[in-house]
Automatic annotation (TrEMBL):
Catalytic activity: dTMP + ATP = dTDP + ADP
All copies of domain Thymidylate kinase-like, residue ranges: 5-184
Gene name tied to this protein: tmk
Protein's name according to its UniProt entry: Probable thymidylate kinase
Family matches, as NCBIfam families: DTMP_kinase (TIGR00041)
Pfam family, one: Thymidylate_kin
Domain of life: Archaea
This protein's record includes keyword Thylakoid: no
EC number in record: 2.7.4.9
Residues that, per the record, bind ATP: G7, I8, D9, G10, S11, G12, K13, S14
Amino acid sequence: MLITLEGIDGSGKSTLYEGLKNRLADLNPLFTREPGSPYLGDAVRRAIAADSDPMVEAALFVADHAVHLADVVRPALTKGRLVISDRYSDSRFAYQEVSLAGAHPDPHGWLEAVHAGWSIRPDLTILLVLPIPVAMSRLAGRSEQEHFERQEFLEHVQKNYLARAVHDPGRFVLVDADRDAETILDFVEKSIRAAVQ
Ligand SMILES: Nc1ncnc2c1ncn2[C@@H]1O[C@H](COP(=O)(O)OP(=O)(O)O)[C@@H](O)[C@H]1O
Ligand SMILES: Cc1cn([C@H]2C[C@H](O)[C@@H](COP(=O)(O)OP(=O)(O)O)O2)c(=O)[nH]c1=O
């Protein structure tokens, strides 16, 4: 089973991901993330840090996904393992539909085409939803701000996430991320345990 964690920057995804490692240890999940695939992850992070051309960035995110699927996700699923990924394809649809606007005539169509026929659909997607001002104040504490972390940008990204959830309600679990980390962890742990039963 493939479970993905999604949400805007500052939504508390990394905090949740780390918390789930303890909570779900008995299920022996494979914890993994995008971007960050073997041998390509570093290149993608360098491209983000360098504020690269949006199409270059998008192509690298897709390439990172391909390596992640081939070398990490698919082999683990084939062995019957539970896989939990911090970010996955929905990040592309949410972020690159915004970043590619103006750089490509049909970002959504391109993203659909580039994933169709080979990417694996998650069984469950946990979406952390947070008011943008709260996310911005959480991000303000970070030493380095990435170019994705601007307020209007994140507003669009969260709208895209919510639109995807509306179109695929059976896959998404929406989480009010404006609560304390322990309450969020309790809720998400219960949702995942219910899904794997
Ligand atoms: N539920 C929460 N309530 C308040 N602050 C939180 C919560 N979850 C995370 N944070 C804090 O917000 C910041 C961003 O959290 P992080 O987990 O890194 O978010 P993301 O990975 O989604 O960007 C960190 O300083 C973290 O300690
Ligand atoms: C996987 C992925 C991430 N991103 C963005 C989201 C983040 O702003 C940035 C780096 O991801 P990440 O390091 O996971 O950030 P965070 O800790 O906030 O989750 O890359 C995309 O734009 N497209 C993608 O396909």
